[in-house]
Queue: 4 jobs
Job 1
Amino acid sequence: MKERIMTLHPRDKKGTNILKLKYNFIKKHILSVIKKHKIITFQDLSDILVNQLQNDFDGKVVWDVVMVKLDLEARGIIERIPKTSPHQLKLS
């Protein structure tokens, strides 16, 4: 049986149970893109990751990006920049 991880949600909502291998894969790419751009909108982050990963990924890239992004926010690894629209992200 493959190891799974229960993601966290920054607003105390229920997380999602996803494969740990998939979580780590998406996490690595999210952090890499944010590190490169310093500040990035969620839409730009999603677009970049879909383009980079869609051929090497089983499932909906955007859905997993959302779940892992929320988990990283809840863990304090990345943060939303307050009062930005569309919302922007940066490393904590």
Note: The chain has a mean pLDDT of 94.
Job 2
Amino acid sequence: MVTYGQEILARVRALCEADPEREACGFVVRRAGALEVLAVPNVADRYHAHDPAQFPRTSRDSYLMDPRAQLRVHEELEASGGEIVAVWHSHVEVGAYFSAKDRADAVVDGLQLLPGAEYLVLGVRGGRVDEVRRYRFDGGDFVEAKLE
């Protein structure tokens, strides 16, 4: 199990609090044994504006990681031998729970989209992160796990 440490969690908190009216998102990656936090732009508003029927949620209540930015992360990690250890995102003015949409986005045909990756969900209320929860894929579903 990954130990994130206060520096990693503080960095994720800071990114979530930098734009507290929108869900922030990204990855925690491991390269050469060290953990690093990567922010990925949330493009939910762009997709919603283009096709609100297909993408009814905005960045206030959803996240959609920029596909090009995600591809770059995957390519860089493949080249450097790194790996994604966690996907993180915030929830605005609600709790740090793993929603039905989070589950649907993380699993395809019963298999985890990013095998082995955990999910960190941060609740942001009043512009501040007030809770952080960790979720792991176990037995075909995501379950909450202790965060250090």
Note: The mean pLDDT is 95.
Job 3
Amino acid sequence: MTALPLYKRPWRKLSPRQKLLREKSLAVIGELRNSKTKSLPQAANDKGITVKNVIKHTNGFKKVNGKPVVKKWDRIQRIMRINTNGQEKSVTLVDSRTASVVRRYHNAVKQFLNTGDKSKLSKFRNKKVKDSKGKLHQFETNPDEIIRINQRIEEPEFYEVYNTK
């Protein structure tokens, strides 16, 4: 029996090191999809991971004229946080297209929290994303709930390094 390739393994079956490498690899792929000028070695180096590990953990490339070119989308599981039903939840998503929708939602939430402009949230009203188990999660678009969720998120404590007194 052969083991599943790393990019096909479910998130829950990865070791902590493999999860970290997958996250870094997905960050490299995301950067390459957004930047037309960066090369795979540059992006991998920026994220502190080898090109070999990026390829092993994602299978997110195709060969074009002998060079690796990032695919438009992938079916690699990743964990992301979403606001749903008045709370923040971690969900396992199955592809990059769904992850892009969640990222756009988070950008809309961030813009709302920074400016108070609710119009960006309206695009996500009654929109849902499906997790790896097929369960649908509706985006929270109620401004009051979003503010409550944001207030419940703990901020990292600031440790005073220098005594300024």
Note: Residues 96-115 form the longest helix (20 residues).
Job 4
Amino acid sequence: MADTHTSGSGQRWSNRWLFVLAAAGSAVGLGNIWKFPYIAGENGGGAFVLIYLVCIAAVGIPIMVSEVLMGRQGRSSPIHTMRKLAKQSGRSSRWSILGWMGVLAGFLILSYYAVIAGWAVNYILASGSGTFTGASAEAVGQSFNEFLASPIELIAYQTGFLALTIWIVGRGVTKGLEAAIRWFMPLLFVLLIALLVYAFNSGGFDQGLAFMFDMKWEAVTPESWLIAMGQAFFTLSLGMGTMMAYGAYVPDDAHLGSTVVTIALIDTFIAIAAGLAIFPIVFANGLEVAQGPGLTFVTLPLAFGQMPLGSLFGALFFLLLSFAAITSAISLTEPALSFLVEEYNAKRQRVAVSLGIICWVLGLGTVFSFNLWSDVTFVGGLTFFDTVDYFSQNILLPLGGMLITFFAIWLLPRDLVDKQLGIEKAWVSVLWRLLAGVIAPLCVLAVFVSTIWPLLAGLLM
């Protein structure tokens, strides 16, 4: 059972594998299932997958290790962990702003994530009831547009999804987070395998395999490397305090390096498997490979609607999406929740409900961005949803990731870092500092600059 006689939150994951599953659940989200397969296919297939694995090793894993390391050392919420570590290291207390940035980013992302996840929940019911069986492309597209145009429907599904998330996190680490992970992650794997078997027999498996894995080096550009680095960073839930918050619950005897590598491998496996489940079905029906919501909520329902047992497997696919979304949403809530519980010595359930209400209200801006406020734009012509998404994903997360890694490598005492990582040889320590303290932050900086430059250029012109 969890050790409840320790400092900070006083809670621990019951074992290493529960942390692995929880962190993998945080990493596996909506973006994994539609975004990675698409960008892999468009940027060189197997060549891109190799580049992505290099970026996971050079960018994702070092930054995740840094976050988890700091979380385990601080044994508190991200904000209190940064305060504590800054004091231990003789650094300015202003470094706690990194904790605030992570908490804010996670909270902003959750506000719109709950809305998008609500779409997946709605599509479980729509697919299972046979709404898309034999439907034309126009009918499926119109159905999606009508759904987005109804704020009442969007709010209903947003509310249900957020309520489930808050109920789970309000129950604590053992009864809430662990219990949910024990159920959702195995079910996610089972659903994914079922969809893979279905896709294998769809008649388009060879095309899907070629789309994702043929070595198309001619399609690889400098931008492909930036895309791979960005995906490696974002897919692992870095920069938002989640891994620091989860790291606070990691048992002392867990080896951080091998644990984080395992998480990254599970995340990558699910992303690749999702592609092998999705694209054969798309190709078997002669449909276009679209990106993002178009693929998930228009192309795939159309494909399932044309296939035998399509209603059943369509419902299973959106159930898979919903499970991936709930495990990510749980992790997005934890940094803010753990801070408020510690700061005010408040009851976890009460804080969870309060956070849920604030998040729900903020999420209304995202709901209305697709209907009532669709013509309301801010800087750069972005809607409310686009603005919140851009600020959190493209500014707060990369900055947070870079600075957290910088702090962990260059400002924490070297012997403390080596002890946490179990490093005993000097050359390993030097190699680690080069990888995590120089290469990883520079890679994220490159992604950060390339992402915000078009917006800055547009504002300056």
Note: The chain has one domain: 16-460.
